[in-house]
C-alpha cells in the first residue's frame, strides 16, 4: 500500500507535468527542502519559495506553475530548459545557463557548531567534521578547501539530526535555514547561534533558463519582485517562516 504522504508527493510532481502543455504558463522549480518547499501535514505544498513564487505570479499577472524538485536536479533542468526558472543562489560558475531576473535578498551563509566546540576563525574549522547539504555552494574558499572534513547529505534535516546526536561537530549553510530547522527540531539549545562563523553572503535571485521560451517576460517578473520588496511582501513571507528575529539571524 502506498503511504498517504507519498501519494501527496506524487500528486505534487504529477500536476506540474500536466500543466507544462499550457504554453502561456511558466514552470518554476521549488527546492525540495524545508522550509523552502515541502508538503505539510495537510498534504499542501508550502514553503518560503512557494509563497514568493505565488506572490510573483499575483503581482505580475503571469501564470506560474511550481515544481517541487531536489536541489541537484534543478541545475540539469535549467541547463537543458526542462523548466523555465526559479529561485536559487547566484553562482558565477552557472551563469552561462541562466538569466538573472531579480534579486530577492542577500543571505548570510555560516558554520554553526555544537556548544562544546569553539570556532573563532576560519582556520578553526580544520579538524572538525562539518555537515552540508549535497550540491550547495557556500563560498569559493569553503567549497574548494580539501583540508576540511565535509560530510554531504541530501536534506538539511539530516544535517540537524547528525548535529543533535553528536555524529558531526558542525553544520554549514544558509543561516536562515539552519536556524529554522534547529528551531522546529528542538535543536537550538545544542548550539550557540550568536557565535556562528559567517562564511560570507550569497544572493538569492529569481533566475530564468536561457533556453526558456518566456525570456520576454523578464521585465514583468522583475517589476513584480520590486513591487514585493517595496510593499513589504517579501519581508512578510520571510517573517512567516523565520520569525520576527529574521534580521538578527541574517547578521
Average pLDDT rating: 89
Number of separate strands: 10
Low-confidence stretches: 1-21
For the report, how would you describe the main beta sheet? 8 strands, mixed
CATH class of the largest domain: Alpha Beta
H and E string: HEEEHEHEEEHEHEHEHHH
**Cα-atom radius of gyration:** 18 Å
The main sheet orders its strands as: 4-1-5-10-6-9-7-8
Describe the structure.
- The protein is of the alpha/beta class and 251 residues long.
- The protein folds into 2 domains: 150 residues, D-Maltodextrin-Binding Protein, domain 2; 95 residues, D-Maltodextrin-Binding Protein, domain 2 (3-Layer(aba) Sandwich), CATH 3.40.190.
- The protein has 9 helices and 10 strands.
- It has an 8-stranded mixed beta sheet with strand order 4-1-5-10-6-9-7-8, with helices on both faces. A two-stranded antiparallel ribbon has the order 2-3.
- α2 crosses α7 and α2 packs antiparallel against α8.
- The N terminus is likely disordered.
Key attributes of the depicted protein:
globular, 8-stranded mixed β-sheet, two-stranded antiparallel sheet, single chain, 251 residues, alpha/beta, disordered N terminus, D-Maltodextrin-Binding Protein, domain 2, 27% strand, 10 strands, 35% helix, 2 domains
Amino acid at each position: 500500500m502506498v503511504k498517504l504522504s507519498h501519494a501527496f508527493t506524487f500528486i505534487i510532481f504529477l500536476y506540474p507535468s500536466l500543466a507544462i502543455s499550457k504554453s502561456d504558463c511558466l514552470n518554476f522549480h521549488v527546492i525540495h527542502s524545508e522550509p523552502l518547499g515541502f508538503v505539510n501535514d495537510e498534504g499542501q505544498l508550502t514553503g518560503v519559495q512557494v509563497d514568493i513564487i505565488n506572490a510573483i505570479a499575483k503581482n505580475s499577472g503571469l501564470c506560474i506553475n511550481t515544481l517541487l524538485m531536489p536541489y541537484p536536479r534543478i541545475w540539469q533542468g535549467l541547463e537543458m530548459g526542462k523548466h523555465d526558472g526559479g529561485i536559487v543562489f547566484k553562482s558565477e560558475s552557472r551563469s552561462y545557463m541562466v538569466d538573472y531576473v531579480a534579486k530577492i535578498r542577500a543571505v548570510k551563509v555560516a558554520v554553526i557548531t555544537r556548544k562544546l566546540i569553539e570556532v573563532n576563525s576560519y582556520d578553526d574549522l580544520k579538524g572538525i567534521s562539518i555537515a552540508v547539504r549535497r550540491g550547495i555552494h557556500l563560498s569559493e574558499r569553503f567549497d574548494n578547501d580539501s583540508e576540511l572534513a565535509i560530510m554531504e547529505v541530501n536534506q538539511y534535516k539530516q544535517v540537524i539530526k547528525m548535529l543533535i546526536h553528536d555524529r558531526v561537530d558542525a553544520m554549514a549553510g544558509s543561516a536562515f535555514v539552519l536556524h529554522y530547522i534547529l528551531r522546529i527540531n528542538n535543536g537550538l539549545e545544542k548550539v550557540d547561534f550568536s557565535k556562528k562563523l559567517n562564511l560570507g553572503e550569497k544572493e538569492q535571485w529569481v533566475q530564468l533558463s536561457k533556453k526558456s521560451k518566456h525570456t520576454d517576460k523578464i521585465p514583468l517578473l522583475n517589476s513584480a519582485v520590486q513591487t514585493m520588496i517595496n510593499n513589504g511582501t517579501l519581508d512578510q513571507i520571510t517573517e512567516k517562516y523565520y520569525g520576527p528575529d529574521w534580521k538578527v539571524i541574517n547578521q
